[in-house]
Amino acid sequence: MKDAKNLSLEDNEGWKKELELKNRRIAELEDQLVACRSANNSDNECTQSLKLMDELKEEKESWRKEMEVKNERISQLEDEIESLKGLTKESKRCKDNETRVQDNDETWKLEIELKNRRIVELEQEMESLENFLKEHADTESVRDLEIVIERKSRRIEELEDTVAEFEDFLKQNPDVKELHDLRCQVTVGNRRIQELERWIQKNGENRESRIDQERVIVLEEMVTQLEEYVKEHNVDVLKRKLQDRECRIEQLQSRVGYLEKELLRVEESHRGKDEQKSGQEKGTTMNPDDFPCSQAIDAHLELREKEQKMKKMEHAISEKDNKIQEYEQQIVESKEEISKLRKEVVTLKKELSEYDDIGVLKEEIRVRDERIQQLEDEVDSLERAFSERIDLEQIEELVNVIKEKEDKERQLSKDLTEKRNKIEELNEALRESVVIISESERKCKNEEKMRKEALQRINKLEQRITSMQSASALKCITCQPLLSKLQKYEKKLKRLTEERILQLEDLRQVKREALKAAVSEKDAHLALLELSGIKTAAQSEHADQLKADRKRLLEKLKKEDEKSIELSVESSPTDAEGTPQLLTKVLETSDDDDEETANDRCSDSNSPRPATTNGESCADS
Question: How far apart are CA 10 and CA 7, in angstroms?
Fold first, then answer.
């Protein structure tokens, strides 16, 4: 119990010291303001200094409001930082999932080996078909086909060279190498399969349909696997690195398109020649020796039809590739949005750090603009003077005037620097006061907790005292002085708690007055805006912001009123006077017990059995 009282006394003393320090600091600031006013009144520019002092007061109030806005903004930024931490955790999870995907890479490699085997089989079939055509077709048509094949092979070689260059470029970046190697192998295998399937499609519809179905199934599986790979992997860094390389790929694709156009043009020329030959052959009678030529023509027609089918398939594949690119773009956009949010957080932090100097910079810019305007006016006047050939005396007078103005400007700049230093000092004092107020509130909360705990302990001790006094207080000689001391201490505690409650009420009153002043200022700003008329979007946004700030301040004022009501309820006289009443009851019971013990002793002296009566009285007590 004594420990609790000592703690409460120490806390009250510390709190009083902090209030004294605050009052001293406020007095020092007021003295500085008075000194500034006296110094400014001694100058020639008294009116300007008074205006500046009024502006300083307004800036103080604006600083207080801005500090509240900044605190709210800081809390919002902390929430955003927590959300970003969650995103970083998700990215770590994605990195953990990358280890799982390495097993999928092995499946990709197996699929590539199967495709290579398929390519070998198709090459064998192509060789068999070439032998068949050599045996049953005309030599000229075969030569034309060989020329087309050579051109396509050259195109394939060019594309392979570009792919090789791209692979050399990718070797420098090992992060992108695995994913792009898989894509390159898939694309090269697909192109090779397309070329081989064109040869196979010349000899049978059943085989063609079967190969087309297999091709579509393989492509769909590849697309689904790529989509799963994009979903499971954190390809953010890879996408960013590939964006620069996709430009080069587009250039290569444009070159490939140009080569394809040339190839189509050459094929059309060959088709025209073939049509001319077919027309000549229709005019003439069919000889049994010309039968292979008719077969070659039929083969050309089948080639055209199958090329059209392959174009349709390529179109479908390109649509799926476009879908994949759209998914990738969505991923990139989401990652860019996250990066933008992070950049915005950084910029907001920078703005918060630089926001203190914005008012000073605005004043400097305004002063410099005025100075520039004055100098421009003076230069214009000098130019006019030279143009009109003004006398040298007038020019000297103008120069003297300019020098006087420069001296005045120097003095003004010195005054501005001094006032800025004072403003910085006042801002530091405001920050210190805010910190001290927050610490005082925290200490008040701790004191309230300690007070409640002390009251609980006192109640428990009182119960124990009442129970123990029935057995031991009758014979205890030192109990009454201790109880009287305890009563004195509790009176002192009551007095200290009343002082603390008064000080807390004063603090609450100061806060409420500050909030009311801020609300009245917001109302004044809103009234000015409504009188001037809201014409632009910026003004409407400013009005909405003022309304939101006013609402927030009113909510704070409500909270402060509720807290003051709770304080008044807690500081009711019943709670404060509970402990002394209990002590008086204890003292009264102790006095009654003393009287009873005295009577018992008298009766015991007359009785023949003093020991037993004493024992019985003790037991009864």
Answer: 5
- Output b/e per residue, 289-311; b: 16+ Cβ within 10 A: eeebbeebbebbebbeebeebbe
Q: Hey, which of 43-52, 180-189, 370-379 has the most confident mean pLDDT? A: 370-379
Render pLDDT for 274-285 as a digit per residue (tens, 0 to 9). Answer: 777 666 665 554
Distance CA 525, CA 547 (A): 10
Domain boundaries, the chain: 1-38, 45-137, 139-172, 175-266, 498-569
Which of left, alpha, beta for 533 (phi over 0: left; psi -120 to 50: alpha)?
A: left
Burial class (CB in 10 A: 0-12, 13-18, 19+), 532: exposed
Contact indicator for 621, 474 with CB cutoff of 8 Å: yes
Contact 77, 348 (CB under 8 A): yes
pTM: 0.23
The string of pLDDT tens digits covering residues 460-494 is: 887 877 777 666 655 566 666 777 777 888 888 98
| Longest alpha-carbon distance in the chain | 168
Can you tell me the distance from the alpha carbon of 49 to that of 37, in angstroms, rounded to the nearest whole number? 8
Where is 98: in which H helix or E strand?
A: helix 46-136
Q: How confident is the model at residue 214 (pLDDT cuts 50, 70, 90)?
A: low
